[in-house]
Design goal:
Elements (H helix, E strand, L loop, with lengths): L4 H16 L3 E3 L2 E2 L4 E6 L14 E4 L12 E8 L4 E7 L13 E4 L6 E3 L5 E7 L4 E7 L15 H6 L7
Amino acid sequence: MRLTPFSALSILALCLIQIEAGKVNIVRIDPKKDLVCLILPPPGMIIGDTEQDGHVQCTDGNPQLLPSNFFIWKKFQSNGNYVQAWGMMNDKSVGLRSDDGGGQYDTHRDSGVNEAPGYAVFVELLEPDSRRWCIRFCPKGKEHYCNMGKSTYGCEGALGITDWSS
């Protein structure tokens, strides 16, 4: 299939409109700097209903600062297959609903336009009803370690995280 010049310009314009509208979420993680960026839903909204409307908040304030009391605790793990962080959160500090069973943000386009520089894919799960969160970044060739097909399994089922002690 060959794109016409008009089709190519239309696709480019759509991408530029999304970027200008702030629809690109850049997610980062750096264990050495204790840096975590998470995509969060609009305050008071259910995660699964707002996957296209998420916004990034980071511990370094770029683009927006996570409240200092958001993390109850967090842990990092890195190996040749992925880099991840997980822990317990103060869901009220960012307006998450404690009755929300959770949801997933990732690099699939049904979760909005989300990118993780330096990694092929990422997967993030937030579970406000249990106050758990987790995020994993996978490099090119290791994408299968970021299991994006198990969003209803939570951090334990999707990423195998079982250590929930501070």
